[in-house]
Design goal:
- The protein is α+β, with helices and mostly antiparallel strands.
- The chain folds into two domains: 2-94, Phosphorylase Kinase, domain 1 (2-Layer Sandwich); 99-242, Transferase(Phosphotransferase), domain 1 (Orthogonal Bundle), CATH 1.10.510.10.
- 37% of the residues lie in helices and 22% in strands.
- The protein has helices at residues 2-6, 55-70, 101-107, 114-133, 173-188, 204-207, 212-221, 231-242, and strands spanning 13-14, 17-25, 29-35, 41-47, 79-85, 88-94, 99-100, 136-137, 146-149, 152-155, 162-163.
- The strands form three sheets. It has a six-stranded antiparallel sheet, covered by helices on one side. A three-stranded antiparallel sheet has the order 7-9-10.
- A hairpin with a 2-residue loop joins strand 1 (13-14) and strand 2 (17-25).
- The radius of gyration is 20 Å and the shape is globular.
Amino acid sequence: MWFKNSKKYSGKKIDSYTIDSLIGEGRYGVCFLASLDIGQKVVIKKFRSTFFNKNSNSKKGMYEAVILSKLKDHRIPEFLGVINQKDFYGFVLEYKDGCTVKELLFKHKYQFSGEEYFNIGIQLIRIIKYLHENGIVHRDIRIPNILINNGEVYLIDFGLARFADNSRYLYDLDFSYLGDFLLYLLYSSFQEQKKILSYKKIPWYKELLLTAEQELFLKKLLGLELVYENIYDIEKDFTNAFSNI
């Protein structure tokens, strides 16, 4: 029902923007591609009307605006403003062109080469490093939230991002997400060998062709070994383990 209701906004003028199309739908609202009269594209993240009925949700929604306003980096969408009209409350964000990794993997069946794996991985690690240096934990580094355009990596959707602290929002929350993301890239080009009389599921560290250094790196990210303490060690070990993949 929410998806169907969102279609009514197509072509509609909201504030200074014209809604072009629906991009995606989430728990708290929908994202539209929109444009200014001058042709500039933006993303409008419209929240459900029920989202702000509870004080806790209202506070959660504000984190994204505050955090994005603090960040100034071309690899992250810029926060452009707020639309607050009757029955329409949303954020205006910079539009980043490209395909999400989810689209590349599941829609286009793209297989990432070893060189692409390293280039994407190191770019993403350096985006995370920038966030952590600014006291921010993203908490949602997943394949739908990573865009690639001509080899350049962008990180989007800061709805779950928070300012780091020493109790609930720790920097290592991003590390397991990173490990999971890197496994998606590795499996994109994995060719499963036929298993004769074997129906047991093989763990990734036995299935993928990895060096001992690469396996240890991924296990530490995913908490299967002593976890990393900071993003700087991750950057160093990733470079050492995968630069010649």
